[in-house]
Specification:
With 165 residues, the protein is mostly helical. 64% of the residues lie in helices and 0% in strands. The longest helix has 19 residues.
Amino acid sequence: PGGGLGDLLGGLLGAAAGKQGGQTGGFGDLLNQAIAGRGTADLAPTVQQEAMAALMLRAIIQAAKSDGKVDAAEEKKLLLHLGDVSADERAFVQAELRATVDVQGLAAQVPQGLEQQVYTMSIMGIDLDNRAEAQYLHQLAQAMGLQPQLVNQLHAHLGVPSIYS
């Protein structure tokens, strides 16, 4: 669907950076590199980028779990997309995979103005082929205050079924 998760997440992380800041070299850097398919990042990630990358990853993982399961193949695919991650980063992903889906908790972590991006990442984390996933997206949209018309526009842009008629 759409231009792919890599293009979307890479663009979001790049926009979040804005300018070069403190060097942390973790999730933001790794996601920029792994997802964009490059060996090195153009800019060192800022602390804000690191937090953004973790939030976007959390949105993807929660959506993937919304149908009640993440199998070993899905977990392996996710970790492979991240590339060479540290033990701490791998532990973060595995902890997120084991955590309970918490729509309200995720929505509460989203900075104002990033609701559409987080919702979009959630769409990208699923196939949207069952009622549980549609219900999850509905709850997330409501929790973040996204109107049904906007949600349908996001779905149409990504070429996935709408959840509102």
